[in-house]
Amino acid sequence: MSKKEGKLSFIIVVIGLTILFIATDSFQAFTAEQARRVQIEKTQPQLKDVTFEDSESETFRLGESEDVYTIVTFIYTRCGDICPAISMNFRDLYEDIPSEFLDEKLQLLTVSFDPEYDTPDQLTMYQQSIGADGETWRIVRIEDQQELQQFLNQAGVIVIPNEEGGFAHNAAFYLIDPNGRLINIFDYDQPESVVNHLEKIF
Amino acid sequence: MKTIKFLLYSITLFLILTISPVSQFLESSMVGLMLIQIPGLTLSGYWLGKWLKMNHLVIFKSYNHSGIPGILIAIFTSIYWILPRMVDGALTEPILMVAKYITIPILIGLPIAWSWKSLHSVAKWFIITNGISMLFVMGWLYLNTNIRVCNNFLISQQQLLGNILFYGSISIFLILVLFAFMGPAQLSREKPQL
Prior knowledge:
- The structure holds two protein chains of two kinds.
- By secondary structure, chain A is of the alpha+beta class.
- In chain A, 43% of the residues lie in helices and 20% in strands.
- In chain A, the strands form two sheets. A seven-stranded mixed β-sheet of chain A has the order 2-1-5-4-3-8-9. A two-stranded antiparallel ribbon of chain A has the order 6-7.
- In chain A, strand 4 (106-112), helix 5 and strand 5 (137-141) form a beta-alpha-beta unit.
- In chain A, helix 3 (83-96) packs parallel to helix 7.
- The chains are: A alpha+beta, B mainly alpha.
């Protein structure tokens, strides 16, 4: 290898590593899922308002509850794969949150992305089975397909049909601030990290 | 020119891979994407390089006599496109999709065609053995993780790809070992090209 080639190789290695460094957000994010989290924590995007319908068929908008933080997770009730684990962990989270937070500053929403099957009746059954109280923790759906898709896109949730007639989807807990900004995404298997974070905020 | 056929191969393969029914079909499964589309685009670029021989391009030749700069470009570009977030990105963002179709042939396939033969046999074996172990590790990871590495694919496809990579890399390794000990002598006794 000539000197010229040595220099060129060195330059290629430096450029190559720099590109990989940038492309992985400083070697932090190798998957789209991690990338999304890094991105969201940096930009804290403003979510477009959305209408939820709960198990009592009552509708309410994300933006209407002032001064309240919202923790959201996504499921569909027929799911036998990952959703039961998500909901169990969501319940752990719900139980670990100091009750004074829940009364005034915080609401939990389990959002179904399968509004066709998940009617309010279906949501009620699900709510009972996982032990949500229907007030501070509600099971909701977004009936309007366009709004649903927009909300999923903004949260970076990709839902794809699987072989068994259900869906595959990425799972996490999303923290939305009172102004409707998505400020954090947490692993669904670490409910304690959400509680720690909330204690810092409140 | 005899080598004009390589240009035809290259263009034909590229066109086949980019027409939308084929690309959509390949991109609908992880195996199609990682084991057919990406290697196919690489091969298309390789044939382009066979046609557009480096020796005709004096500047390139003087900078890539040892083949090392060229192969480094190919290695870094491959790492970039197998990052799971780039696999996802190239499926959802048009700019990345176009970038993928261009850079895989030009920055992976073509430099391989221009560099592989000039590489010292030690470098060749270094790359081959590292490549195999990387495929093995990737396969093992895909089989043993509970997370979906790519948001656009089902976990069952990830596991299928994991299986193919895992057992494929073991098979390739065994075949190479067999060749090294009892196969055609030229494979293991290559003349060093200094």
